[in-house]
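Below is a filled-in request sheet from our internal design queue. Each sheet records the structural input a requester submitted and the sequence that came back. We keep these sheets so that new team members can see what a complete request looks like end to end.

REQUESTER: design group, bay 2
PRIORITY: normal
MODE: inverse folding
CHAIN LENGTH: 467
BACKBONE (tokenized):
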């Protein structure tokens, strides 16, 4: 057990902010960048709300110095950003695009000049369209292409960047992109989704192996989106099995291969009607389970699930591919009285403590970082231009306390990255959902620090919540 002051975090705790390339950069056709799957998807009628695209987003590509200045104003000591693969390697293979790499060199230099540690995510969903045309993540070759791309970026930035994560939320890339189809590339084929899952993890392992050989001192990891999963009634076998099934599909199917070197047997058995996992070749799982220096965890909510029960009110779970065996018997419940964000996600801070302590308990010891946590709310701009986002302030405070509780319980949590630094393009929701600590007026690109940003500044300053 770690003994720390009730409201103070351990010395050296990382307080950061996070973004993603397609959500903020804009400049979609500048300096040699070619289309990603998200360019294609967002330009396809009906795929995003209002037909919104990331063509301009927050114009971070041209305003990065201003944005780094805002980070310094907030006091963040680390910034997690992703590299746009089609900006760096437009065709998904071959030599690097010098102008694309130069942008990230400038960004890293600006961060370091302002005493902000850069944390690079190599892939946050923007696969070059050329690789999707060649088969996308269901094709094994895409894993090798990713490892090559990772080394291009590492070769350009590795002398100044010490912290790297390969993928952000491969669950979303595989299952939302290739099963439910609500994310790019919008395909709906469950067997392809499972192949995509495996090849994402294989690309992770190959990239980690190559970067480790090039720089043994680099801090290397991956970011997974994890959920607290609860049965609606712990006395009902059907509810317990629903929780097992969804925990398997949401959490263990990624945690186990990355940290234990195997897929969970019960989940593989559940999915035999979809795939025989023939895409797994000898040596794959050993390569996937490369030793890591950190695990990033993105946490937003809890899932409460029940077995099939016509008397239990439930909401449809759009993330679960309905063609997967047994998924039709799982009901995702909305609990009466539990507050929700503008995304409709329940606010459940204790679930963050539960998730962190569960990983610490069930898996080999590894430093943990919250690489995303935050909430979308409908912000109101005051007459003086200020944004008093009290709900987001309360959300952050509750989750800071949840992090503190996890550390007190012994979880090796070393940092927290708020999602997000800026309001941005929220994928299929377009610009209708705002997660930022900094408001962006998309007509003028004016930035305004919200009350949540000012609160975060105080938390960072005091390395805790204060009285």
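RETURNED SEQUENCE:
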């Amino acid at each position: 057990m770690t003994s720390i002051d009730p409201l103070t975090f351990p010395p050296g705790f990382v307080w950061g902010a996070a973004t993603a390339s397609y959500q903020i950069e804009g400049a979609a056709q500048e300096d040699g960048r070619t289309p990603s799957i998200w360019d294609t998807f967002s330009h396809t009628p009906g795929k995003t709300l209002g037909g919104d695209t990331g063509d301009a987003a927050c114009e971070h590509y041209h305003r990065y110095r201003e944005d780094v200045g805002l980070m310094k104003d907030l006091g963040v000591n680390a910034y997690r950003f992703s590299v746009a693969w089609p900006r760096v390697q437009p065709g998904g293979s071959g030599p690097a695009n010098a102008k694309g790499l130069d942008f990230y060199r400038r960004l890293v230099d600006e961060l370091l000049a302002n005493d902000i540690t850069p944390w690079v995510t190599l892939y946050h969903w923007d696969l070059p369209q050329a690789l999707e045309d060649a088969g996308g993540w269901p094709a094994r070759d895409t894993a090798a292409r990713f490892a090559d791309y990772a080394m291009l970026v590492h070769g350009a930035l590795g002398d100044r960047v010490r912290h790297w994560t390969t993928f952000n939320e491969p669950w979303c890339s595989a299952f939302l992109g290739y099963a439910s189809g609500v994310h790019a590339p919008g395909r709906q084929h469950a067997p392809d989704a499972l192949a995509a899952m495996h090849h994402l993890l294989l690309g992770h392992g190959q990239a980690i192996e190559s970067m480790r050989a090039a720089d043994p001192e680099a801090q290397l990891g991956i970011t997974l989106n994890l959920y607290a999963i609860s049965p609606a009634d712990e006395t009902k076998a059907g509810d317990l099995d629903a929780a097992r099934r969804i925990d398997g599909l949401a959490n263990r199917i990624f945690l186990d291969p990355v940290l234990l070197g195997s897929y969970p047997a019960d989940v593989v058995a559940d999915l035999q009607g979809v795939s025989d996992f023939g895409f797994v070749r000898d040596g794959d799982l050993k390569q996937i389970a490369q030793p890591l220096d950190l695990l990033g965890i993105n946490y937003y909510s809890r899932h409460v699930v029940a077995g099939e029960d016509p008397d239990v009110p439930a909401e449809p779970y759009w993330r679960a591919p309905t063609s997967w065996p047994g998924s039709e018997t799982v009901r995702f419940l909305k609990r009466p009285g539990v507050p929700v964000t503008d995304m409709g996600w329940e606010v459940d801070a204790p679930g963050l403590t539960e998730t962190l302590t569960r990983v610490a308990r069930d898996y080999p010891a590894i430093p943990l970082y919250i690489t995303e946590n935050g909430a979308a709310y409908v912000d109101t701009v005051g007459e003086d231009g200020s944004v008093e986002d009290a709900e987001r302030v309360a959300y952050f405070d509750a989750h800071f306390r949840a992090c503190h509780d996890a550390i007190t319980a012994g979880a090796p949590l070393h940092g927290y990255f708020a999602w997000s630094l800026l309001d941005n393009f929220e994928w299929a929701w377009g610009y209708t959902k705002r997660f930022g600590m900094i408001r962006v007026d998309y007509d003028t690109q004016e930035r305004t620090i919200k009350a949540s940003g000012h609160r975060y500044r105080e938390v960072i300053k005091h390395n805790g919540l204060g009285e």
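SHEET NOTES:
- The chain has one domain: 14-462.
- The longest strand covers residues 117-123.
FILED BY: M.R.
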